[in-house]
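Lab notebook, bench 4. Still working through the backlog of constructs that have no structural model yet. Next entry is a single chain of 284 residues. Request: give me the structure tokens for it.
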Amino acid sequence: MSEKLQKVLARSGHGSRRELEAKIAAGRVSVNGKVATLGERIDADAKVRIDGHEVTIKPPEDVVCRVLMYHKPEGELCTRKDPEGRPTVYDRLPRVQGARWVAVGRLDVNTSGLLLFTTDGELANRLMHPGSQIEREYAVRVFGEVTDAMLRKLQKGVQLEDGPAAFKEIKRGGGEGMNQWYRVVLTEGRNREVRRLWESQGVTVSRLMRVRYGSIRLEQGLPQGGWGELPLEQINYLRQLVQLPAEDRSFIDPRKPETRQKRYARARRSQAQRLQNAKRQTRK
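Model written out:
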């Protein structure tokens, strides 16, 4: 049966549906030698090229959905390549055969913490959709005087330049003097929304870290720049959130569970390798 081109490409790991729709609209995708159109339906034997390169089309039964948890450090960009050569979140991720990692949302350059990546572009697209209303929890340190009236206002809602916004939940997290920590929860992922909400009350965000996405928490002990593969149970939790069918297999062999210690050791090796590569580039 035929399926929409962007859906098939996303499922096959060639990017998020949003990215692919932009490429199709720009005339960068062809089907059987002809420039593709948005919404075009294709059969399983179609020959598809992106930017002139033939890509693999995978049937649903051949696709294994993978999801990574990544501990993003401050200073990394959520982009595949930076013209200025600055580090990106993709630099440390493991190589994947016949697919590509798609980030589930973004964190700005000065924000650290939990960032999810998947090889399933359809899953990424649905999780990022504003209608998904998935909770994101952040640990935030603010500088300035914070009153109870301000906290009530932030939960009731304030008007930002791109519309009204509010925290679903705010909890005090301690601190000294004018530097105070809070835990805040949002159900959307607008650009710099946490920072802009606090700044609307005249206080400055000095540290910001995402610690939870839905029920998935950033694992304690996972070093900055480290990653870990999510097990089938957590992958299916994410798929259930956005009404996608459950998977019955994962990239992780359940007969050979990987301990946290091994995973973190691998993450540290990945981080060390990246630092060595950066030093070589600097010498050049």
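Notes after review: The chain has three domains: 3-62, 67-130+216-283, 135-213. The mean pLDDT is 87. Flag for follow-up if needed.
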